[in-house]
Structure formats: C-alpha cells, structure tokens
Amino acid sequence: MIGSIINGQEFNNSDNTIDVINPYNGEVVSEIALASDIEFEKGVTNSYDTFHNTMKDMPAHERSDILRKTADLMEENAEEFAWAIVKEAGKPIHFSRGEVQRSVQVLRFASEEAKHITGEVVPMDAAIDGDGRLGLVKQVPLGVVAAITPFNFPLNLSLHKIAPAIAAGNTVIFKPAEKTPISAYQLVKLFQEAGLPDGVLNLVMGTGEIGEALVTHDKVHKISFTGSLPVGRSIQESAGFKKVTLELGSNSPNILFNDANINEAAKQLVKGAFSFSGQVCISAQRVYVQQDIYEPFLKEYIKQTNELTIGDPTDESTDIGPMISEEEAKRAKQWIDDAAEHGANVETGGERDGTILKPTIMTNVESNMKIIADEVFAPIVSVIPFDTEEDVIAYSNDSIYGLQAGVFTKDIDRAMRVADQLEMGGVWINEISTYRQDNHPYGGVKQSGVGREGVKYAVEDMTEPKFIGFKLKD
C-alpha cells in the first residue's frame, strides 16, 4: 500500500483505501491510502511552514542542483517509471518510455530556469520628481502551489507543475489523479533521494474532495490544474484571489490544404488522433481536408489507421492499448453511436471490447454532434471536407475551445495568414496539433484554459513582481 508523504513521512495506515486497477486486464496493481482530514491539513500547513522556514531563502543554485540530480536519477530509473505508467494508465510501453524521457527534459529545463529568474531596474527619473531615486523589481515566489494532475500523462504533466514551482522557490502540495498514483509516489521519493528538503514537495492521496479543499484553503497561494472543463470552471469560481493556471479541454482542428503531402500528413495524423487512445488534450479530433484532395487523403488515412497494432500495452509492438476505464470506453462508444444515428458514417473502427475502443474515423458529421463540439478524449477523429481558406478558418474557430491546431501547407504566406486567424493558444505548421515540446508556451484561449505552461512560462506564473524603491542622498 502507498499513501501520502508529508514532511518526509509516509501515511499509509488509513482504512479508507482505493485499488489501483490496470485498465488493460483489470488486475489490482496497488492500493492507496486516502489522506484523512487531519493528514490533509497537516500537509498544507507543513507546505506553508516549509516555504517560510526553508524554501523562501534557498539559493537558486541549490534549487537548480536538486532539479538536475532528480533528472539524473530519473534517467537512471527510467524503466521503473515507464512500467509504472503502463500498469496504472494502460499506456503502451514505447509511449510510456517517451513520457519518461520528456519528464527528464522538463526537470533539466527547470534546473536551468532556476538560475535565470531575473528582475529589472526601473528608470525612476522618467517621472517628474523621480530624480535621485532607484527602483528595483524582483521576481519572488508565491508560496504554496497546489498541483492537481490528470491520469493521461501522470509523470510529465505533474512535472510541468512541480518542477517550475520548485525552480521558482515555491513549495508544492501535490494531488495526483487517483487512477495513476504509483508514478506520483515514485516521483516524490525520487525528489527525496535527490536531496529536496522535507516539506518542499508534499503528496496527498485523495479524490476530487481533496482537490476542492486545496482550491479554497487560505494557505495555498496558487492552483495549477489540468483536467476537465467542468472542474476547471468550478476551480475558477472557488479560487478567490489565488493565482490559477487551468489546462482544460480541446477539440483540436488540423487543416490540410491541397498542396499538403497526403501520405506524410496521414502518417502524422494517425499518431495525432490515436496515440494513447486519443486521451490527449491536443489530440487531433477534427481533420479538415481541402475538397480536391479529400478522397485520396481519406483512403490513405483509413489504410494507415487499419495497420495499427491493438492490444497489450506491455507488448513492444502495441500502438493502441486500453482507455483508462470501461466507463470511459462505453461513453466514447455511445458518442459514436449517437453520431451514426444522426447520419454520420463510421469509415473504420467504432467497435469496443472492454476498455479497448478501436481507432475510429468518422465522416459526414455535423458541427453540433458531440464528436465535433465536445472533447472526445478517445480514439475518434472526424474527417471533414472544405472549399476555401475562409471556410476552414470559420469551421475551426466554431468552438468553445482554442488550445492548439495543426496546419499542413507548403505556402508560407498562407500558413502565416491562417495561423494569425485561428483562435488558438498555439498553431503548428506542417505538424499535428498533438505535438508539444516542453520549452514552448502551452495553454489555451476561450474555454481551453487560463495561463501557460512550458517551464519558463510556468515560472513566470509562479512568481510575482516585488518593487523595492530607494531614495538616494541628495
């Protein structure tokens, strides 16, 4: 059994427990002890006290060294982390290894960023009567950052919150998804091994109730959350004066103009739509294809999709494993059936076997269908023809979401025009919407979220400017 870790001490004696289930075979792979109310309060209070007693004054080079050592240790133990993700999330092993590699990179970016948090000198004499004055601005840490993380990238997305927070000099109270707590537990233990002082990173195991309590707690200064739109709305309403970063839903559009390389675009969009069974915030959900290449693209897309290997995520050759739960697979299957009942065509896939939903390509869809208007978070993609540039921009922007998009064209002028007009937090040219690096700003507009991740940009959100003015001698 694994439990919360508060001030270096593990709490795993609770009678209130949850089984961690392997989504592929239904086996119990671990058991977590949920934090009691007393343990939760102890965790938050200890994070607050540790910030004021330890972390607030820790020099940048020490924070940087700890992050670098954690990266080195993770690299040494990469297989252990990868197999934990396979067991708890059902993510195929080669994708799990990729997540660990990215996580190492996040830690190294954060280690460097810790040493480059700068301020500025304000030209006080630019104002009347400002002569003889000096103004300095320092970026200072906020205090306690609550990291509330999802199941789909249990290691990498957790580190996109934890690593920048530590780099900036904050303490962290970490609430992972209850379906994927094993890698979270291993991560906290790894930070301890790297020399992070007790209390800088506290782990509290729990359900949504713990998350709600973090959002409203007076000793928490910032909430960093990745998850669903309804929960994000609730956090925004409840957080009060806290700083908030919300990474929420999307129904990412990908646009193919008639000069795109059909085979290469199809290859990339198979990965973009179906990696980790589509359980990716920026998964390619809507694929708009210019009319004169629509049919050849669709034919090639179906062909390449049908070549995917579906099955056991522990198998090195597996491309598509299970969804996180049978409940989620049933929900996605129902969305497919609802669309088909209203005239949509299932070109391939659409079949469910337990937690596995076959990669599904839909056509003849309408903009008000759930598979278009909402976030499917499943291996479902719709392929839609368009005529003009103006049409496809309108189709793409017709959404409550605006996280990331992909545009395929050889025309750089058109690429820039379209990118400027798409209402998205990020636009990739000749790359799928699903592609993300760990050092660029990442976040959405509209109802896809608030704030930005990407280590440098997260650090900015996890600090605040403090002005110090001097009146010099006459």
Automatic annotation (TrEMBL):
Q: One Pfam family of this protein, by short name?
A: Aldedh
The keyword Coiled coil appears for this protein: no
InterPro entries given for it? Ald_DH/histidinol_DH, Ald_DH_C, Ald_DH_N, Aldehyde_DH_dom, ALDH-related_metabolic_enz
Establish whether keyword Nucleotide-binding is in the entry.
Answer: no
Which CDD domains does the entry mention? ALDH_y4uC
Record family assignment: Belongs to the aldehyde dehydrogenase family.
Which reaction is catalysed here?
Answer: (2S)-3-sulfolactaldehyde + NAD(+) + H2O = (2S)-3-sulfolactate + NADH + 2 H(+)
Residue intervals passing through the bilayer: none
Query: What name does UniProt use for this protein?
Result: 3-sulfolactaldehyde dehydrogenase
| Record-listed E.C. numbers | 1.2.1.97
Domain of life from the UniProt record:
Bacteria
Known function: Part of the sulfo-TAL (or sulfo-SFT) pathway, a D-sulfoquinovose degradation pathway that produces sulfolactate (SL). Catalyzes the oxidation of 3-sulfolactaldehyde (SLA) to sulfolactate (SL).
Q: Which residues form the Aldehyde dehydrogenase domain?
A: 14-468
Species of origin: Lentibacillus halodurans
Q: Which UniProt keywords apply?
A: Oxidoreductase
Q: Name one GO molecular function term.
A: lactaldehyde dehydrogenase (NAD+) activity
